[in-house]
């Protein structure tokens, strides 16, 4: 499944893109730029088009502050949102409990809650520079284990780490993987990249794809090309 990252500076640009590619995928990601510009109205406008919103604000703060922000995401009706696993076990556990309890209180289905492990723009060398001695693979698995124990639904990681996560934590534990790059697209600032075809082979649940689609001369053709490459796996 493809989640298209709507990294735009206006609702108009984002909604044009949604209208152009929603026949290929109903999943869209609203991140820091678009949410800072538009707030929850953009979530409503995308949901009104029968599409699902992954709110990618990567909450990382003390539990009380994040629970207050999570209220906004739950009330807005997002399908999925995320927090940083580095916020810690107690933090993740209390947000997961709050997610279920608050959704029940206001009478909605709890959104999926997932944890960011190690950003796909980071490599082993980058971890060393911030004092983390373990390799990315080991760090991702450790944080994913903690997220599962805390009651989260899944993690954000690179598709490179999906097999290890599924083998250790089960096929049902959701993996959401940015850093997806078709062979014909630029890597940009992503370091742990995987092609869409390989990501599917590795068992990713949701691929997050931004610039290869949104900055393509024809976003619809780029999405179709990616889907054709994935579907050619089945022949
Ligand atoms: O580890 C992470 C977590 C989130 N992202 C976000 O995904 C998209 C990727 O966009 P591309 O244009 O395909 O690179 C972007 O919105 C990031 O904020 C990530 O890349 N890595």
UniProtKB/TrEMBL annotation:
One of its GO terms (biological process) is 'de novo' UMP biosynthetic process. GO terms for cellular component: cytosol. The keyword Metal-binding does not apply. It is an enzyme of class 4 (lyase). Keywords: Decarboxylase, Lyase, Pyrimidine biosynthesis. Pfam families: OMPdecase. One of its GO terms (molecular function) is orotidine-5'-phosphate decarboxylase activity. CDD domains: OMP_decarboxylase_like. It catalyses: orotidine 5'-phosphate + H(+) = UMP + CO2. PROSITE patterns: OMPDECASE. Residues 1-226 form the Orotidine 5'-phosphate decarboxylase domain. Substrate binds at residues 7, 29, 56-65, 120, 181, 190, 210-211. InterPro entries: Aldolase_TIM, OMPdecase, OMPdecase_AS, OMPdecase_bac, OMPdeCOase_dom, RibuloseP-bd_barrel. Pathway: Pyrimidine metabolism; UMP biosynthesis via de novo pathway; UMP from orotate: step 2/2. Its EC number is 4.1.1.23. SMART domains: OMPdecase (SM00934). The active site is at residues 56, 58, 61. NCBIfam families: PRK00230.1 (NF001273), pyrF (TIGR01740). Homodimer. Belongs to the OMP decarboxylase family. Type 1 subfamily. Catalyzes the decarboxylation of orotidine 5'-monophosphate (OMP) to uridine 5'-monophosphate (UMP). This is Orotidine 5'-phosphate decarboxylase.
């Amino acid at each position: 499944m493809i989640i298209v990252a709507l990294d735009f500076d206006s609702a108009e640009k984002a909604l044009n893109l949604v209208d152009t590619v929603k026949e290929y995928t109903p999943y869209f990601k609203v991140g820091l730029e678009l949410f800072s510009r538009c707030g929850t109205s953009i979530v409503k406008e995308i949901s009104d088009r029968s599409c699902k919103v992954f709110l990618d604000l990567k909450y990382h703060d003390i539990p009380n502050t994040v629970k207050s922000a999570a209220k906004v995401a739950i009330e807005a009706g997002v399908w999925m949102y995320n927090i940083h696993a580095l916020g810690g076990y107690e933090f993740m556990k209390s947000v997961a409990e709050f997610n279920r309890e608050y959704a029940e209180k206001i009478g909605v289905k709890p959104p999926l809650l997932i944890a960011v492990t190690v950003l796909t723009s980071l490599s082993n060398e980058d971890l060393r520079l911030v004092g983390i001695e373990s390799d990315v693979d080991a760090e991702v698995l450790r944080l994913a284990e903690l997220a599962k124990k805390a009651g989260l639904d899944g993690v954000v990681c690179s598709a490179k780490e999906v097999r290890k996560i599924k083998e250790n934590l089960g096929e049902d534990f959701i993996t959401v993987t940015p850093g997806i790059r078709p062979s014909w697209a630029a890597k940009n600032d992503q370091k742990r990249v995987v092609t869409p075809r390989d990501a599917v082979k590795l068992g990713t649940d949701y691929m997050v794809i931004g610039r290869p689609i949104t900055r393509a001369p024809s976003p619809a053709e780029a999405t179709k090309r990616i889907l054709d490459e994935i579907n050619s796996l089945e022949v």
